[in-house]
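Lecture notes, unit on protein representations.

Consider one protein chain, 391 amino acids long.
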Amino acid sequence: MASIDRNSLLILICLGLQTTAEAQEEAQTPFAKFPKSVSGYLQHIHTRRPAGRDGQQLPFEADSPAGFSAWQRESRNTLVGLLGLDRMAREAGDHQVAVRLSKPIPEDGYQRQRGEIDTEPGITIPFWLLTPTRRAAHPVPLVICAHGHDRDGWNTYAGVYRDADHRNTTLARDGDAGVQAVRRGFVALVPATRGLAADVSVPDLKGRHGRRDCRAQLIHCLLAGRTAIGERVWDTQRLLDWSLSKLPGIDRQRVALLGNSGGGVLTVYVAALDERISVAVPSCSFTSYTSSSGFIFHCDCCLVPRAQVELGDLSEIGALTAPRPMLAVNGRTDKLHSFPDVEAAMGRVHAIYTAAAARDRFRHTWGAEGHKFYPDLMWPFIESALSRSGR
């Protein structure tokens, strides 16, 4: 082991003490402070209440006689309804999902194909399929990469750049998740996220919804008895249906799902409901719905009416993934989220994974920077989890 001089050791100790002091100070300071005229109201409506009171039925209770499995089953059924997935299934009727693939485009070490999938009547989701050039001797894992609030996000993740600035910005933030996956020998699917990608968004005509297409999409969904995040879950599941039944060379027992920001929120919901996902990595997204003072962390389009009342918190929803492996990554300097609130939420996830006898399959860690992917943290976890699931 390399030696370290006394001065360097003192510097490291001081840095550690400074970090600890900053964390303690942050824990004592509200992430957002509302005026006194509304703070009491927010505290009242967002306070967690015991199960069975005021309509709140399913937040996890470690001492519940029914146990984890019963809670998971009931919560998933409730979540399907809250997201509007049951209504979407009824409305889709006998709709046949159709997929079209263009000719492969050769890249350095892999090939790229543009695809389209008709996930429900009137909706076509474009996607990129990235496959290694060198054919593997055995089926390889599939990685689905879900993007967030980037109107060109599916191209960003797949390394399809508008210009040099787009490329440089993406690479500086380690944002080419699909390319990273295929270079590691995986097959990668990078779909456009409905309501976030320009190709599959409802435009906010006349700026009625704050000139935000994602909010316009949400309002249309709510009026129709569905949710924006539910539509994204639906699209991801239809892509899973097709890829796991039609794509050659895929190991159907080893499927990873990852995403940053809004794509990370989507990752949480899909993994919670769909056991075909072997390992999930939500990045810079997995936390509570609200801070201790009532600040709402996520974009409107990621929220689900009544979820906080009927299921407890996003931490409970994410923990429905248990016992399958999940890595939650947050950025230490990410200004969109609160360190103490993230830590508290991840503590609840740990508790539920422990109740599911899967404590070692959930991990939460902090990246040193902000709102971005952390390849050095997520890929070793994914590869380790997929190696175990393939046994």
